[in-house]
Amino acid sequence: MAEPAHPALDLERFLPYRLSVLSNRISDDIARFYRHRFGLSVTEWRAMAVLGRFPGASGMDVAERTAMDKVAVSRAVNALIQRGLVQRVFDPNDRRRSVLSLSERGQEVYDQVAPLALRLEASLLDALDEDERALLWRVLDKLDAAELRVHG
């Protein structure tokens, strides 16, 4: 039997595709809320989410924690600073290093969006029983570690 002329990806069974599509659908669900209500892009919200969890992170930290492009993160952070949602403080000993945190207004936005994100997560996880949820987290941790070994 002859080999196919072109390799075929069974997208329904191709893990990167499935994870990407699912991630995009979930992100789009919550993005409708924060885009409409606060005028935030997905990248801006992800930066805010990281800073809400890790105040004092650098722009590089945000890019690493979100696995997003450094330039896109830098643009998002600058837009958030201009809108008064994020504050930047430069290290007095090294002006190249800065730390970021949510402003008071940024914290108020975070406090409105985060519960919605948690409710969306809960509604998704409701489809799984307790053992399946535990297995999901273990599998995600293993895949994350494997990807870091390959590309990290």
What does this structure look like?
This protein is mostly helical. The chain has a single domain, classed as Winged helix-like DNA-binding domain superfamily/Winged helix DNA-binding domain (Arc Repressor Mutant, subunit A). Helix content is 66%, strand content 10%. It is built from 6 helices and 2 strands; from the N terminus they run ααααββαα. The protein has a two-stranded antiparallel ribbon with strand order 1-2. The radius of gyration is 19 Å and the shape is globular. The model has no long low-confidence stretch (mean pLDDT 92).
Structural key phrases:
single chain, 152 residues, mainly alpha, Arc Repressor Mutant, subunit A, two-stranded antiparallel sheet, 2 strands, 66% helix, 10% strand
Intertermini distance: 39 Å
CATH class: Mainly Alpha
Low-confidence stretches: none
Give the tally of structural domains.
1
Looking at the overall shape, the CATH architecture is Orthogonal Bundle
Radius of gyration: 19 Å
By DSSP (H or I, 4+ residues per run), the number of helices equals 6
The average pLDDT score comes to 92
Helix/strand class: mainly alpha
Strand order of the largest sheet: 1-2
Write a brief structural summary:
This protein has helices at 15-38, 42-53, 59-66, 70-82, 104-125, 130-151, and strands spanning 86-91, 94-102.
